[in-house]
Specification:
This protein has helices spanning about 15-25, 30-40, 45-50, 80-90; strands at about 95-105, 110, 115-120, 120-125, 130-135, 140-150, 155-160. The chain is an alpha+beta fold and about 170 residues long. It has 2 domains: about 1-60, no CATH class; about 80-160, Immunoglobulin-like. The radius of gyration is 35 Å and the shape is elongated.
Length: about 170
């Protein structure tokens, strides 16, 4: 029986590939047994048992693909700050102001589908019509529309309503 031993680098995988190929190509049990014995003699684990050091393999991970499913932490400001700045930049010289409040307080605010912060909030906007949605901490929601004229200051209070009742009572018989 001939024993082949590779050492150093990544050459250790060559006998593994050869053994796998021979196993596939062999047709009799006797030759398959011989292939398995040869693999045991030339494998890394056989060398380790004889006192040789196993090769050190450092895995290389591929760079993150653009289509990754993992969330990537944003290095910039939060989206609500970016959206508020965008609304202010579009406001122009005829800008108006809207003070947004909610009952109960501390509701998240979306203006035209963009998050802008929590109530109470003073927002500088260009004249026009805006859809305002607010969501409370306990799942309450409320929607309203506000029309803003040039240089106008308005206050909008949205009463939030729970999607589900806080209490359920059974009818008395």
């Amino acid at each position: 029986m001939v024993s082949v031993r590779f050492s150093g680098g990544l050459g250790w995988w060559l006998p593994v590939v050869a053994v796998a190929s021979l196993c596939v190509l062999s047709s009799t049990n006797a030759s398959a047994q011989a292939v398995a014995e040869a693999a045991g003699a030339t494998s890394v684990s056989a060398g380790v048992a004889a006192g040789a050091k196993p090769p050190v393999v450092i895995p290389k991970f591929p760079a993150a693909a653009s289509g990754t499913q993992h969330l990537i932490a944003s290095a910039g400001p939060p989206p609500q700050e970016t959206n508020v700045r965008e609304f202010q930049a579009q406001a122009g010289k005829d800008a108006g102001k809207v003070l947004l409040r909610a009952t109960p307080t501390q509701a998240q605010i979306w203006v035209n589908g963009k998050i802008v912060g929590k109530t109470p909030l003073l927002l500088v906007l260009a004249p026009g019509k805006y859809e305002v949605e607010m969501r409370g901490a306990r799942g309450e929601t409320g929607k309203s529309t506000v029309a803003l004229l040039p240089h106008e200051t308005r206050e909008l209070v949205v009463n939030l309503h729970s999607l589900y009742p806080a209490r359920v009572s059974a009818p008395q018989q």
